[in-house]
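If your schedule permits, I should be very grateful for your opinion on a structural question. Thank you for your consideration; the sequence and its tokens are set out here:

===
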Amino acid sequence: MSIPLPAQAPPIRETDGALRVGRTGVTLETVLWAFQQGATPDDIKRRFPSLELADIYDVIAHYLRHRDTVDAYLREREQVYRETTEQLKKEFPQDDLRARLLERVKR
């Protein structure tokens, strides 16, 4: 007798232009970065207690099955991060930030 096993999509959803894991605000790249740095699913769960352990395993399994596609997404997100960081540096220069903060404290 065979038991039908329903196929289930990984617990990844898009909100605000980012892919998030489960029903949390934790991004896909955050979970995968931790995994790529050697964290186990249990380690990731300890770092992000709002995540479900099963969701972490599902996301890692999806990554391992679709590495090329997910890596392309991760590269795209890294580029967006770099561009945003550069734009913020232009809008809010850090030149002599320490001196400006110290000056405010003196007032």
In short: The mean pLDDT is 92. The first strand starts at residue 12 and ends at 15. The beta strands are 12-15, 18-21.
